[in-house]
Amino acid sequence: MPGVLQVPEILPVLSRGKHRKPAKGACFMELAGYLAGERWSDHPACTHPLLARVARLVNDYVSDSGRSRLAPLIPSVIGLTSDDARVDARIALRCARSALPVAAEASQRVLAVSVLTAERVINRLDGNPIGEVQPASRQALDSAPLAAAWAHRFAADVGISTEGYRRHAAPAAVDCAVRGIAHAVVSDVDERLYAVLEGCIADWQSLTAPGRPGIEVDTSAWQSICRLTGVR
């Protein structure tokens, strides 16, 4: 999808949920596909499926006042596609370890297993020892020691294929994590949701930027249109 993306003069209003047509509003990924010139859908081909899943969930769980802050991120997900399973693992890992310290106890075991499983997939793909855990993941696990201890015992006996991880485990981790943050008893839910999406985009770019197609967005036009239409 090389070239320059032209920003249309009129944009749908950024809002929660799926929309049948632009006149009814748009979610984060519907706007991304719209900007990319695709058929109207909240599952456009221009963005990696798991990253798009994070974007849809964050769009739906963030408050109405906080949603407008997501708008500047929309052009940055266009063209982020890859078949590298490390992308799925890093997205799931970012979400799980962001949620683990603040999620309800009922979700912490799932999130701790998600952290360990993502680390195992990444290590396997990178040829590193399976038991290695990154410092940020260790810190997240230390925030919920009981869940972490249970997860270590559980994960030791569970094997998963790369394809099975991408199809089932990674999406489940993302769902549990974003919902865990959204329902956490903290005062900065919007900030945490924004940080997860922004971090997933950054993680994706750090892995795949060298092979990314040349895509440019008229940033000044995008910001201007966002202000005029109420997207931002």
Question: Can you tell me about this structure?
Answer:
With 232 residues, the protein is mostly helical. The two termini are 26 Å apart. Strands 1-2 form a two-stranded parallel sheet. It has 2 domains: 96 residues, no CATH class; 125 residues, no CATH class. The protein is 58% helix and 3% strand. The radius of gyration is 18 Å and the shape is globular. The protein contains 10 helices and 2 strands.
Low-confidence residue ranges: 210-214
* Share of helix, binned: 55-70%
Main β-sheet, spatial strand arrangement: 1-2
Compressed to H and E, one letter per element, the order equals EHHHHHHHHHEH
Put the structure in a nutshell.
This protein is mostly helical and 232 residues long. It is 58% helix and 3% strand.
Keywords, separated by commas or semicolons:
mainly alpha, 232 residues, 58% helix, 2 strands
What is the topological layout?
Elements: E1 3-5, H1 28-35, H2 49-61, H3 64-67, H4 85-99, H5 105-126, H6 135-142, H7 145-156, H8 162-182, H9 189-208, E2 215-217, H10 219-229
